[in-house]
Structure formats: C-alpha cells, structure tokens
Amino acid sequence: MHSTRTLVIALATASALVAGVAAQQKVQINGAGATFPYPIYSKWFSDYNKLHPNVEINYQSIGSGGGIRQITNGTVFFGATDGPMTNDQLLAAPSKILHFPMVLGADVPVYNIPNVKG
Q1: What's the pTM?
Q2: End-to-end CA distance of the chain
Q3: Integer angstrom CA distances of residue 80 from 41, 88, 100, 116
Q4: Which DSSP category does 82 fall into?
Q5: To 10 degrees, the CA torsion angle through 21, 8, 56, 60?
Q6: CB within 8 A of 51, min separation 6: which ones?
Q7: Cα–Cα–Cα angle for 81, 32, 63, nearest 5°?
C-alpha cells in the first residue's frame, strides 16, 4: 500500500509573486504542512535557492491539518497534506486551490514471529 502526499497551492498568488520578482529583490515564499515530505522539500528548496539566491522558500512542517488551515487562512503561499482537501475545505478557501502530487511513501507492515530467526 502507498499513499500520495499532496502539495496544495494558492496558485495565482504564488505564481504572480515569483513571476514579478526583479533579479535584485529578495523574495521569501512561505509554506507549511505535512511532516512526511519535509526532508525532500528541504533539499529541493535549498538547491533551488543556490540557483536563485534571491528566492528563499521557507517550509514549516506542522502537519497536514496545519497546512490546510494555513493555506485556508492565507498565511502561506502553499501547503502540504497527506491527502487532498475535501470539497468543504476547498469551498472554504479564499481562492482557487490546486493539488499537485509531490512525493510517494510506502506503508510497510512489520511483525515479529517468536522463534523465527530468518
């Protein structure tokens, strides 16, 4: 079994922000949400910043529910969640939300059978 981790983004705001940045301006893009993708997001955002030093992406891994709340409240440009937002959550958002699958994770059952060594 696997589950897809999803990035939710208030697309119009974020794309307008990045597109309108002059080369000399420093821009910070804030996001929050699921803890699972944090290690890869941290790597991606660091690598992106090396190529584009004027753009810093700040991601707070506060959990899927926190990411949904933050994007709905408009306090971040993007959020991450372990599953897509519900229709009610999408309707509560102040602007159109788009979902992008970003990373995949596996759920692996682990068990111990007594006296089995291999």
Answers
A1: 0.72
A2: 24
A3: 10, 17, 9, 41
A4: S
A5: 150
A6: none
A7: 50
In contact, 34 and 64? CB cutoff 8 Å: yes
Who's near 64: CB < 8 A, 6+ residues apart? 33, 34, 80, 81, 82, 83
Q: What is the distance between the alpha carbons of residues 106 and 72, in angstroms, rounded to a whole number?
A: 28
DSSP strand E in the chain: where? 2-9, 27-33, 55-61, 78-81, 98-106
pLDDT in tens, 62-106: 999 999 999 999 999 999 999 999 999 999 998 999 999 999 988
Q: Identify how many contiguous H helices and E strands the chain contains and give both numbers.
A: 4, 5
